[in-house]
Structure formats: C-alpha cells, structure tokens
Amino acid sequence: MSKYFIVLICMSFLATGCGTNSTTLATVRGEKITLKEFEDQFRNLPPAYQVMLTTPAMKEKLLDQMITEKLMIQEAIKEGLPRKKEVQERLTLLKNQMLIEELIKVKVFDKINISDDEAKEFYETHQTQLSQAFPGKGFDEIKQDIKRMMMRKDETKTRLMFQTWIEGLKKEAKITKNLTLLGSSKKEEGKK
After folding, report:
1. How much is the pTM?
2. How open is the CA angle 57-61-63, to the nearest 5 degrees?
3. Average pLDDT for the chain
C-alpha cells in the first residue's frame, strides 16, 4: 500500500464527529476544505480505519496533511500538469477502471441476494474476526458489510454471474477482430 494512499485514508478520518454541514474547516489559497468533504470520505472508509481518528491532535495532523495535498494539487495545476499527454492518458485509464468497477457492482454484486438470515449465520460464525474489524458494532450496524464480504467470499457464484453477463454482452454486440495483427493466419473474424 503506498504512502500516498495511507495519507488519503487517514485524512478521511477528520470527519469523525462532525456535522453534515458545509462549514469551512480550512482555506488554502482561497479554496475551501469543508467538514462535509471529510464526512463523505469518512463514510467510504472501512470501519477498521475509522477507529484511528479519535483525538483532536490526530485530527489536526490529518488536517495538515489535507492542506498539503490541496497545495500540491494547486501547484500541479499551476504547472500545467493536467494538460500533459501522459497525465491525460493516466486519468483516462483511472476513469475507465472506475466506470468498470461501478458497472460490475451494479450488474453483478447488486444482483446477488444474500438473506438477512444467511448474514446473521455468517456473523455468528465469524463473530471474533468481525468484532476486531468492526469494534463495538452489532449485527444490524454491519449487516451490509457482512453481505458484501459474503459476496466476495462466494467467488464461484460471483464469477458465474459475471461470465454469464459478459457472454450476453458479447452476443448482443457487433465485434470484429483483425487477428493477422496478432500473428494468426486468420484475416478477420466477426460476430453479429
């Protein structure tokens, strides 16, 4: 895990205990950092990381890191880095990866139904590990997290759903291949 990713995770904890308003927490060269921004990031973090942010001193250190990040972004923009071809290519790759991940979530993971009873059974069987990952939280508070864990654990069912969905997409699409560019003796293969 990179240092930068850890810093981003830690910065997200600043939202602990904050209201849901857009009160300005800091201003960096006229650009605001709001409490709401911290809350949004905080909600997307695993509960195990949420425990890390408990004291005002930790929050202040993390705020300083957020300010540093904001300054670095501003400098990158000032230097014209967002217009560089390499940066644009990487941004496109990241955007495409995020779109694919969200699409798979919607088309595969959201379609897998795990009953509350199944989740409760998993909770009871793995209570020791879950209490470490989600300290002080009961079943109802972590039920959705448990269901997501169970979906990922049942890879066979998930993989089958994914493969069926992809095959359906391929059947519907017009696909052509120029296999000679790959060294094949076939000139071109087309579907639909």
Report:
1. 0.56
2. 115
3. 79
